[in-house]
Amino acid sequence: MPSLTEADPALPGPLAALAPLLDQYGYPAVALFVLLDNCGVPAPGQTILVLAAVYAGTGHLNFAAVVVIAFVAAVVGNTLGHLIGATGGRAFVHRWGRYVWLTPERMARAEAFFARHGGKVVTVARFIDGLRQTSGIIAGTTGMPWPRFQVFNLLGAALWVGVWSGFGYLAGAHIGTVYRTAVRYQLWLLVGFGVLVVLLAARQLLRRRRRQRSTGDS
For the stretch 54-89, what's the b/e string if a residue is b when 16 or more beta carbons lie within 10 angstroms of its beta carbon? Predict the structure, then answer.
């Protein structure tokens, strides 16, 4: 069976670059890159997931196998990230935090934020580059309870794998155009998430200042 690059030379750059790797290693490549991409390593897990789904749509791979392998790898990867954060995150922050402006006060605010919104962050983070790699580590470092983390870890993995595998499978021969459009919308999602974080932080700051004023007046 010819490789997908021979059958469809219109693959966009990131997908075309990974096609030879997927041609040679298949499912293990999907498992490895998705796992790494979800536990703190900037690997192209999302890209290879989309490409594997495109392969499945053309009969080169089994779609159900791609979905199951990617889901398990994503869950395991983020679980490893949580374990890393829970066992070594605080020591790292205490030792090196001051060099990246992560003071004890900011760490306390991060813990409070994650206590209230950690589930949303873990779920949505899969769709945002940078957060996908670090959300598990952050959750472990801030002390997010293991059972609660796993609920949202499973939910986020299911949504992420479902969206991107379905996207690749249905895009088929139009993957080049559709992929570029999806990347553009992902950028808007990142901007929107950043704005939401700023608004939540600003609201928390205003609340704290009101409490300080009311305490001072009394």
Answer: bbbbeebbebeebbebbbebbbbbbbbbbbbbbeeb
